[in-house]
Amino acid sequence: MLKIRYSSRADFISLGAVGAVYKINDRIALKIPREADRNKFAIEIATYDTLERHRPPCPDIAQSFLRTPDANFLAFYSHGTLDKRIRSHQVRSNEVLGGRLLQVTELEPLNLVHQWAMELSSGAAWLESLGLAHADLRPPNLLLDGQDHLKIADFDCVEAIGTLASGGAPPWARFCGPEGGDESGTFGKNGARVEQFSIGSILYFMSRGYEPYDDGAMWPRGPEIVDLMMDMQFPPIGEMDVDMTIQRCWRGEYLMLKDLANDTKLLHGAFSLPRAASFDDQYCKHAREECRKLVESGLLRSFDRTF
């Protein structure tokens, strides 16, 4: 595991596939790469360089204040990941692979789910407008700020729209079925179809309190889910406002992500709750200067990037 020599300077938050994240203070988090994953980390750095050139910034994207080849200084979002939030309401059996779902003790308010749906789809649509696909939309890569606004994070898998999709694990990514023609059996090409499928599964997770196919009836999960998704045998949904959106996402009915974003803006919680705002330029300037001083103080030398 990645270690920090001077723990008084940062608090460990999480360890991901590409690197580790630390809390520096109530404003700033620091992401540093594994030695073996610098190429993936470079994708995130380059992506943020691209995003920063487009003004105004999108309020649904996690803010980066300062980047070096060895570090990404980000805004600290105090409510953690969407994944941790939803799973905190689950009771599971003591089995391998996380255990079978036994109970969901609490559901998030539907208005808040509507807000998250709008923020997620709006952020993805903004990336689409720049010719980019996040390509790894999953609950662990979605952050919640202190007011429970959702932010898309982790840009180490970003790919250009129109390129072959690298895909991911079910239920966040799907192999094309017979409807895909020549793309059947592949993840297809990056774009609205691939991204909206991920969003549909995330909306299901938000509104049900568990992943698609994870209601406790199917055990173990895995290859069966891949086959079910290829055949478009999706979990049943009801008549909640968000359910039609989930179904349309799973079936790839939105030609562009901006169409999905426009739909979610009509959900009650999307316009009844306060809209998120980006940090203003002055705040970002002060935060960036604080990050530069941290670099100059030798903070980055206090981390061991070997695992």
From TrEMBL:
InterPro entries linked: Kinase-like_dom_sf (IPR011009), Prot_kinase_dom (IPR000719), Ser/Thr_Kinases-Pseudokinases (IPR051681)
Name used for this protein in its record: Serine/threonine protein kinase
Keyword terms: Kinase, Serine/threonine-protein kinase, Transferase
Molecular function per GO: ATP binding; protein serine/threonine kinase activity
Organism domain of life: Eukaryota
One Pfam family hit: Pkinase
Occurrences of domain Protein kinase (ranges): 7-307
UniProt-listed SUPFAM superfamilies: Protein kinase-like (PK-like)
